[in-house]
């Protein structure tokens, strides 16, 4: 049995969690989370016992999840901005015995109807509970639900430990690191990597509550060594870093800048590197698989790529017939399939969806990528929404989006395909202009020049903004209404 958080057993006075001016050291976290864990272990076990966590960006959320992990009670993190229909589905599907919240939290009616336990930062000393088995379910994290009702991915303790240990190797992550971020705490990036990651290493996490470049500059300028963010955050950093000496200096002094949850445009990579000398590390993962690949801290960093498979992760590309692609030419597009200890055990109450998601022992990610001669992967989009078949070519939306973003008149861009009688699908660019909108023909020719003529958009549609979810991913289905 794996001890998830060895530092909790040391009675260390080293800071573990810091949210604003509220801090718990390891000894305090062990006492507070241990007391709550003992209460959770006493819940009636008439059926599968689970707890919902109202995952606001506060220290109580982190304590609640750690306590549930110590107790061996699966936790279901709930997005505090969730809509009524989605919340109804998640609660009905996961059937939590109670909901863990911070003091005085206002809950929507569906959660308010459940028994409630307010997490307090107090607790009596006592032994931590024995560790559950490695295959025991730890978290049930719901997918974004882009193709139907959200599915609850059951993540075992084994997947959490293996992913965080693989990142220790890839990122040279140690107990001396102080991680700063402002990510939401209901999903993999902010919760598992951003909270549980530092705790497994015995380091410190400093959560900003809300993202701002000023807050990032202060944190990195003080004690933090690592920054986690999503592309929308790094886009703001890229836009401001040339005008802020404090921000540039803070980023320059960081040990590691990591971006995830969506592709970071090459243009933003270049702006940050030019101003600070830092090269942002990208990685690739999913709710069902946690982390699959990453650019390594000590290895080459190539903007637009997500690195190589992490230790323990097997990865292959397959074509539409399911045949394995052996080519590594940086051009041939295939679907990513993975297997390894980082995988989930299945979708809660959905054996049909679980079976459909696997090709034997390989998980079908639905993500399309190319692979170069050194094994570096470049994600070109989702199979369902980002693989465009036009004029006999298979084209990834991601590289066209990156090309558009290199145009001075483009602030944001998304690329989709739509039916075309002649081409099968035509490439459509959705563009948020930077200032006055450039001419459509100018953007089309710009892409044709950078990439190749068959990858140029046939239609450009200017919009005021792109629809995004809470993790900053563009919701492309919403673009077509």
TrEMBL record:
NCBIfam families: PRK07787.1
GO biological-process terms attached to the record: fatty acid metabolic process
AMP-dependent synthetase/ligase domain mapped to chain residues: 12-348
Family: Belongs to the ATP-dependent AMP-binding enzyme family.
InterPro entries in the record: AMP-bd_C (IPR025110), AMP-bd_C_sf (IPR045851), AMP-binding_CS (IPR020845), AMP-dep_synth/lig_dom (IPR000873), ANL_N_sf (IPR042099)
UniProt xrefs under PROSITE patterns: AMP_BINDING
Protein name: Malonyl-CoA/methylmalonyl-CoA synthetase
CDD domains xrefs: MCS
Domain AMP-binding enzyme C-terminal: start-end pairs: 399-473
Gene Ontology terms, MF aspect: medium-chain fatty acid-CoA ligase activity
Organism: Prauserella shujinwangii
Gene3D superfamilies referenced in this protein's UniProt entry, alphabetically: 3.30.300.30, N-terminal domain of ligase-like
